[in-house]
Amino acid sequence: MFLTFEGMEGCGKSTQCKKLIEHFVRQGHDVLHTLEPGGSRLGKELRRILLDPKNSDLSSTSELFLYLADRAQHVSSVIRPAMEDGRTVICDRFADSTVVYQGYGRGLDPSLLHHLNDVAVQGLWPDMTILLDVEPEIGLRRALTRNMQDNKTATEGRFEAESMAFHTRIREGYLTWAALHRGRFLVVDAGRNPDAVFDSILRGLEEKGLG
Ligand code: TYD
Hints:
Elements: E1 2-6, H1 13-26, E2 31-35, H2 41-51, H3 60-84, E3 88-92, H4 95-105, H5 110-121, E4 128-133, H6 136-149, H7 164-180, E5 185-189, H8 194-207
Parallel strand pairs: 1-3, 1-4, 2-3, 4-5
The protein binds thymidine-5'-diphosphate.
Thymidine-5'-diphosphate binds near residues 36, 51 and 102.
Organism: Desulfomicrobium baculatum (strain DSM 4028 / VKM B-1378 / X) (Desulfovibrio baculatus)
EC number: 2.7.4.9
InterPro entries: P-loop_NTPase, Thymidylate_kin-like_dom, Thymidylate_kin_CS, Thymidylate_kinase
């Protein structure tokens, strides 16, 4: 089984990923927890480049191809081998992040990005994608608090430093994209407490026969 988590900064992906992994491990699954960008050896180098605020002059197109290269390598060297070994793969961000951030966020064409993703994932689409939906104000507040706790500056990371208009486009882009791919997406209201959010995730998995 291949599951992905999506959502804007501060939506609670790390917390919910952790809860879901613990749930599947209790059920006896052999779980691989991975992430994008940065899930492969090459990807770790690409992640450093992509998230370095010094690279804020990257053009939208070169940024796009770095994310796609990260994904292609991640699928072929990490995700597909794990699936072939019968493992359950839980990935923090995947192809939909490209459609939403580079497409709805940066203005590239979402349907073109979908085709490019199709090349990058080589037929390996998630069985289900969990979108943790939260209002931009709440997400950003949580992300900034986390950065302070981690002793980073409030705007560390290229995307946290973007304007509220950008984050609003991200939130709306996710909802639009999820509505276009209802069969694969589970949209969860992530503005609630973590246990309530997790209950909705478990119910959604059961409804799709993946619980
Ligand atoms: P990360 O520090 O992992 O943030 P988060 O905890 O929010 O996942 O940073 C990943 C950033 O990369 C995030 O802001 C979204 C962005 N991103 C894209 O723009 N396109 C992509 O294809 C992916 C995978 C991520």
